[in-house]
Amino acid sequence: MAIVNLKINNIDVQAESGMTILEAATNAGINIPTLCYLKDINKSGSCRVCLVEVKKARTLLSACTTPVTEGMEVFTHSERALKGRRNSVELLLSNHSKDCLSCIRNQNCELQTLSEELGIRENKFQGEKTPATYDDFSWGIVRDTTKCILCERCIQTCRKVQGLGVLGLENRGFNTIMAPVYNTSFANVNCMQCGQCVINCPTGALHEKEDIDKVIAALNDPSKTVIVQTAPAVRAALGEEFGLPIGTAVTGKMAAALRRCGFDRVYDTNFGADLTIMEEGNELLERVTHGGVLPMFTSCSPGWIKYIEYEYPELLPHLSTSKSPHMMLGAMIKTHWAKRNNVDPKDIFVVSIMPCIAKKTEIQRPECKTGEYVDVDAVLTTRECARLIKMFGIEFNELPDEGFDPDLFGDYTGAAVIFGATGGVMEAALRTVKQQLDGVKLEKVDFEACRGLEGVKEAEVDLNGTKIWIAITSSMSCAKPLLEQVKAGTSKYTFIEVMGCPGGCINGGGQPIVPSKIKNGKLGDGYRKLRMKALYDEDVKQELRVSSDNVQIQQLYKEFLGKPGSEIAEELLHTSYSPKERFKIFDDNK
């Protein structure tokens, strides 16, 4: 690759040919602000915030689209560049809802931060605003076009990361808005509700539908026994909401904080993850030994489930029928736990703290009910959990580390912890399946071929003399080639893990929002690696690292479930799927 020599702010810089000014500046440690730019996803230059002055150029140029050239002299913060940048932001603000104090993204909004950095103190441009749309009809995502800056980051994320293209620009000129087709609701199109659009939105135009008030009402209802469970990935990111470094594991403080919020029991969804492995592992063995539908897909990710129901309904028989971990634990709480503690299931309110917005939709699925009761009553994202803790005046960082409630569902293995990272479900399953088939305690529990952030990972695994191929993927753009192979009958795999979000749950749509300055900067994907490391570090510290070794899981089967795949296990821990209509467009005139 040819090297280009240039100057940025009178500093000699070398860059690879083909790089943009923005990339060259970032590599040199020089920050140029952006709003529409998102590394590897969106590079339109539409926001005009990254304007820079280039010597001998007639106009200011957008740094994210202008390639470097030999001898180029760039000024990122000259008077002319700052004036142009300020004008761009002031124009965006002129069409923006300025309810910053009550906005869900207050103090974590890239437009707000940039306005402060540029010293914008007045509404320079005032007048008519684009007609607004407020869409809160879906269970998970809210869209408010009054806060949209038309950066297209959500549009390109949906298109390039998930391969869907649910969002686009509707109308023209001053009336342009970001929307699903015909400006319909997220509830009426083939949206996964994964929330990747939300965590890549620079403002409050997209956000999760909050259920905090519902949880507070339950906590204050003396007739309710309120039980909370926390997903593995939450512990690896919750601390970021309280100013802790990315990748800080806060398992103990999280349990302590939730206990102080007033929950009657604080459990870990990791128990449900161990239970999932027992059921899913048994299902895989049944399919392999009795000629079942292969390859088998994992079923933990509700965004992925929505995708396959919309886009590949003919492949639904390949899905494991096992419910996701938090739904399994919810079902156990409202049956076995309720009976053991003499509590009527109707008086139990189960709250799941999840890294995922799609979980809000999952709990509404009619297929995910235990008798007349839903398995889980409310889902809070990691961000909502942080808001609840702050609302209750709890000094999170000052809390002592505490454990989860030990009774009945308190134990978990290291295999359960890694569910939060792409490849974790596969590795956890392989640990248990291999140990059961080999008939001896597994000496080497680490399946390192399952780890990493590659779009698709594969490996050949020996299961007591039988060799199978496994594949691991996350995000639908990476999953699609694997699905096409299965559809064509050419897939060599026996077991495929699919997670809806790139990197798995550690990068779920409900996790703390990492500013684009970090994503576009030198750290890049590093924030996902740091969160992932927190999970694998906790896995190593666990005394037991194979799900089937969990003593409380063994006791649950002995006392209540009988064995994996039993009649009662099928009734409570398994589900079904059905094809879904991709578009529902309603005519208001009818």
- Identify the CATH class of the largest domain: Alpha Beta
Segments where pLDDT lies below 50 for 5+ residues? none
CATH architecture of the largest domain: 3-Layer(aba) Sandwich
Summed up, the helix count is 19
Instruction: Give a short account of the largest sheet.
Output: 5 strands, mixed
Distance N to C terminus: 61 Å
The overall average pLDDT, rounded, is: 96
Structural class: alpha/beta
Radius of gyration: 25 Å
How much helical structure, as a percent, in the residues? 25-40%
* Tally of discrete structural domains: 3
Biggest sheet, spatial arrangement of strands:
2-1-5-3-4
- Beta-strand fraction estimate: 5-15%
- At CATH level 3, the topology of the largest domain is Rossmann fold
Report the principal-axis shape: globular
| Number of strand segments | 20
Provide key terms for this protein:
Ubiquitin-like (UB roll), Alpha-Beta Plaits, five-stranded mixed sheet, single chain, Rossmann fold, alpha/beta, 19 helices, 590 residues, four-stranded parallel sheet, 20 strands
Brief digest:
With about 600 residues, the protein is an alpha/beta fold. Helix content is about 35%, strand content about 15%.
Give an account of the 3D structure.
The chain is α/β, with parallel strands linked by helices. It has three domains: 91 residues, Ubiquitin-like (UB roll), CATH 3.10.20.740; 114 residues, Alpha-Beta Plaits, CATH 3.30.70; 362 residues, Rossmann fold, CATH 3.40.50. It has 19 helices and 20 strands. Strand 15 and strand 16 form a beta hairpin. The mean pLDDT is 96.
